[in-house]
Amino acid sequence: MWKFASVLVLALLVAACASPGSKSGSGGGTKPYPLDTCLVTGTKLGSMGDPYVKVYGDQEIRFCCEPCVDEFEANPDKFLKMLTK
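Above: the chain sequence. Below: its structure as tokens.
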């Protein structure tokens, strides 16, 4: 049973990496994140470890830490407006 679950999880991870919304930017129409800073705090991405990456609608968003994801999700329109400035 564990082997089956492990294979299933691995297959899902590989499929997610190869999906049209992946970081490569090819296909799928997901817009790449245009900034090198966190959308919520303005902190340089990577300064607190690997950025958290989410796709909201057709836009990739990158955050410096997990609490910023929660803050974004509480009011996404407020932060998405910052990408169009």
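The two ends are 51 Å apart (CA to CA).
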